[in-house]
Amino acid sequence: MKVTRRDALKIAAMFAAGGAGTSPARVLAGGPGVRNLGLKADSGPRRSESGVGALMAWADKLWAVTYLSEPKHGSGAGLYEIAGDFSIRKRHESNGVYANRLLHRESNQVNIGPYMIDSEGRVRVIEQLVSERLTATMTHLSDPSNKLYILTMEGLLHELDVHTLKATTLFDLTKELSIKGDPHFKGGYTSHSRVVVANNTFTGPGDTDGRLAQWDGKRWTVLERKPFMEVASRSGFGEVIFATGWDEMSAILKVFAGGKWLTYRLPKASHTFDHYWQTEWTRIREVETERYLMDCHGMFYELSPVAFHNAVWGVRPICAHLRVVPDFCSFRGLLVLAGNEAAAASGNLLSPQPQSGIWFGHTDDLWRFGKPQGWGGVWRDSNVKAGEASDAFLMTGFDKKVLHLYQEGAASADFTVEVDFLGHGFWQKYTTVRLTSGEYKYHLFPSGFSVHWVRIKSNKDCKATAELFYT
Fold first, then answer.
1. 54, 150 contact by CB (below 8 A)
2. What DSSP element (H or E) covers 430?
């Protein structure tokens, strides 16, 4: 049957109702199978989550894996197959925690969760990994034709033979990267002859167990001791590595380009993502050909996979949102957003049925979600050195803007605000704000004023705070 865009959106709305196994014809007709769409876990007696951890279009189907909060903490989660007519079939029940997916090009198989799926849709189960919390799959450095790396939330890095499905543990990254608290690894990717992994441990200000780290096949190097979520790159075009994280001041975008790591700062759209349990695999994915969408701390952005002049020219915000989106992809011309709706995990007694809908729409629909707005800073009670510039902070695509400044420790200090309107490090003086010790001032930018990036310098050593609000 022919499904129009309006029909597809109607189907999408129905998907939020939960369940399995019906056709668009019955959805559009309002038949009795309508409420059986979506993905759910069992009602008990042990209740958990039913988050959709990974999506992958493959072998003429859309594949999805759901996850519980902990392996075996509940039941009903597993691997699902969604056909072009939107009918759903559960292929395997595993009751684990999975959010990994990658195409292994050489063997023409997809790895999603603890499964390998060939181009005919045949599913094999990686029995060794069913009970582990799988969070990222990465290309192998030395034997890409036969092996993959699979990372767990606990920091175990496994080497998987894609033919025999034998898994061998290479590292315990909790020990390798000196993580003292609870590890919570999320993203990982292989690019530029290095494996880059992200751990988003963050329980509050002062927690230094978050990590962004890389391995060149010989040794591990810690890049940041802050919570990081996603690592993404694209082979064959762009070749830039992106990693997203955050700290108390702002969201963070790390970029590997021109042989070095660069740091950019982005506004937070919400403080509800400021804990490692509240950030569920925010992603960077290619959803239109050679174009990225980035979900970072409650905001969707446009992101180019290319860095010119070894710099990111600008990242454009699309919308602010509260939705938990563990993964997203393209399927048959539609944008597909995974979800993790409220359930009885972690003491929630008001949503006892674990269930999550899958949203189907179009990329351009994101512009109707919520106007981009947020806040973040480049300094927060920070020890600032005279003449040393702050990180670049995003200033593109927002409406009203205000800068808040405070300093102590210097009798008087001049803070120079510099802007980069070209986007590749062409910094120009915009204004100077003078503050005595203990003084606070704010600066309102003119309505409609916009540049790609902004940064700040002080002419004196001091302790300073600089925060920007965009509304």
1. no
2. strand 427-436
Q: For residues 437 and 404, is the Cβ–Cβ distance under 8 A?
A: no
Instruction: Report, in angstroms and rounded to the nearest whole number, the Rg of the chain calculated over CA atoms.
Output: 23
Q: How many CA atoms does the CB half-sphere of 327 hold within 13 Å? A: 28
In angstroms, rounded to a whole number, what is the distance separating the alpha carbons of residues 125 and 65? 13
DSSP string, 333-354: TEEEE------SGGG--S--S-
Residues 6+ apart with CB under 8 A from 448: none
pLDDT digits over 380-425, tens only?
Answer: 999 999 999 999 999 999 999 999 999 999 999 999 999 999 998 9
Q: Name the nearest CA neighbour of 318 among 364, 362, 278.
A: 364
The strand order across the sheet containing 167-172 reads: 134-139, 147-152, 156-161, 167-172
- Overall residue count recorded for the chain in this entry: 471
Token pair recorded at residue 357: 């809908």
Burial of 117 (0-12, 13-18, 19+ CB in 10 A): buried
Could you tell me the residue ranges of all domains in the chain?
A: 5-368, 374-470
Region 167-189: what's the mean pLDDT?
97
| Overall pTM surpassing 0.85 (yes/no) | yes
CATH superfamily of 5-368: YVTN repeat-like/Quinoprotein amine dehydrogenase (2.130.10.10)
Q: Which pLDDT does position 12 carry in this prediction? A: 52
The HSE-up count of residue 436 (CA atoms within 13 Å, CB side) is 0
Confidence of residue 340 (pLDDT cuts 50, 70, 90): very high
Residue 272 has pLDDT above 60, yes or no: yes
Q: Which residues are within 8 A (CB) of 29 and not within 5 positions of it... i.e. 6 or more apart?
A: none
Q: What is the DSSP letter of 438?
A: T
| Separation of alpha carbons 34 and 21, rounded Å | 9
Instruction: Determine the distance from the C-alpha atom of residue 264 to the mean position of all C-alpha atoms in its chain, rounded to a whole number.
Output: 16
The pLDDT assigned to 439 comes to 98
Indicate the range of 32-36, 106-110, 433-437 predicted with least confidence: 32-36
Residue 70 confidence (pLDDT): 86
pLDDT in tens, 133-172: 999 999 999 999 999 999 999 999 999 999 999 999 999 9
One CATH from 3.40.710.10, 2.60.120.380, 3.30.565.10, 3.40.50.1970 for 374-470: 2.60.120.380
Report the candidate in 420, 412, 417, 400 with the shortest Cα–Cα distance to residue 438: 412
pLDDT band at 38 (very low <50, low <70, confident <90, very high): confident
- Which residue bears the tokens 């049957």? 1
* CA 87, chain centre distance (Å): 28
